[in-house]
Design brief:
Blueprint lengths: L1 H22 L8 H27 L19 H32 L4 H32 L3 H18 L11 H9 L12 E3 L19 H5 L5 E3 L1 H25 L5 H13 L1 H8 L9 H17 L1 H8 L3 H27 L4
Length: 355
């Protein structure tokens, strides 16, 4: 059973190496067309992987599909495994859109240069993958050994959905975040950006590097006052820390959501990974249009509520809808998200002043 994990992780590492080492080796501003192209690549890979899932579970490659899924008590054949994978992928992908809103606020508040935003997101994604892997491992063990945990997850998702629908968002700038204040209090943080560096050494060339190529380096009082050879972190590192913290917070919602669909760790992990891998390009594609999707937040809340209800009433839904109830849930999720996007576009069009 180790083989599929090694093959999948090797593929992910190769793709990430190509991403940063070849296609984005030089820092640059990621344009709309480039971000759309990369989004199409990652989405195509994520959807195409469902074909491998189908074949792997249908033919029991490396023992896939040989154990009972603790969520619904069924053995995952090819069709069922592919449906659960796609449902998990769509749920995680849709919830990651909510993450984009917060990341955009972080970058705006910390004035992160556009050409270095991809670098922050790349390393943030690596940290997110490790974090999700650990949380999925723990969650899978809990669901397998303590089935009643599913009801706690389901109730938590419904409460989260109600909170998203009822409570108004308060915009809190990252520089006012307690974590940022704590870091600035105990760790030396440069006042200015120093190129693409997350940390610099006082007196080195990097400590005198301008925030953007072609600009004259601005004197940084924090660096100037530091003893020569002392290491300092830059605001770019603060942005990375906040992005990681944001993913941790959102993972608390998304991990229980995926366990409403399946407890198979391979399906859970692969659907999460493909959803996260496309987050960077999706951010650059949607960052300039997030204000247009007013109805996306309620749609995401309805998705969480649907998944929570499915988790609480899985046995009843299975008896009512039959073995196709997972496919039905996938269809409802897609319908809700499509409705949110269409409603947002209609609302934006009505708000647009007549010319």
């Amino acid at each position: 059973m180790i083989a599929p994990w090694l093959i999948f992780l090797s593929f992910v590492m190769v793709m990430l190496a190509l991403d940063l080492g070849v296609f984005h080796r030089k820092s640059h501003v990621v344009g709309f067309k480039e971000s759309l192209a990369w989004s199409a690549v990652w989405i195509t890979l994520g959807l195409s992987f469902s074909c491998l899932v189908y074949q792997g579970y249908d033919h029991h490659w490396w023992g896939l599909g040989s154990s009972v899924d603790a969520v619904d008590g069924m053995i995952n054949n090819g069709k069922l495994a592919a449906t659960k994978y796609l449902t998990g992928y769509v749920v995680e992908k849709s919830l990651s859109v909510d993450n984009i809103f917060v990341i955009a606020m972080i970058f705006s508040s910390l004035a992160v240069p556009p050409r270095y935003q991809h670098r922050v997101l790349f390393w943030g994604i690596l940290g997110a993958l490790a974090l999700r892997g650990a949380m999925i491992g723990i969650g899978s063990a809990l669901v397998t050994n303590f089935h009643w945990v599913l009801y706690l997850f389901g109730g938590f998702l419904i409460l989260t959905a109600l909170k998203m629908l009822v409570m108004k968002e308060k915009e809190e700038h990252p520089e006012n975040n307690r974590l940022v204040k704590w870091i600035r209090k105990f760790l030396p943080v440069t006042r200015e950006y120093h190129g693409q560096h997350f940390h610099v050494k006082a007196g080195s060339e990097a400590s005198h590097e301008a925030a953007e190529p072609g600009l004259t380096a601005i004197s940084d009082p924090v660096v100037d006052a530091a003893p020569k050879g002392k290491w300092l972190i830059t605001p770019l590192m603060l942005a990375l820390i906040l992005v990681e913290l944001t993913d941790l917070i959102f993972a608390v919602d998304s991990i229980p959501a995926i366990f409403a669909i399946t407890a198979d760790p391979f399906l859970v992990f692969t659907s999460n990974v493909f959803a996260i891998l496309g987050l960077r390009s999706l951010y650059f594609a949607l960052a300039g249009m997030i204000d247009k999707f007013h109805c996306l937040k309620p749609a995401l809340a309805l998705v969480l509520m649907l998944v929570g209800v499915k988790m609480l009433a899985a046995k009843w839904l299975k008896a009512w809808l039959g073995d196709s109830f997972n496919f039905t849930v996938l269809g409802l999720i897609l319908l809700i998200l499509a409705g949110g996007v269409v409603a947002s576009l209609i609302l934006t069009k009505k708000e647009r002043p007549a010319t």
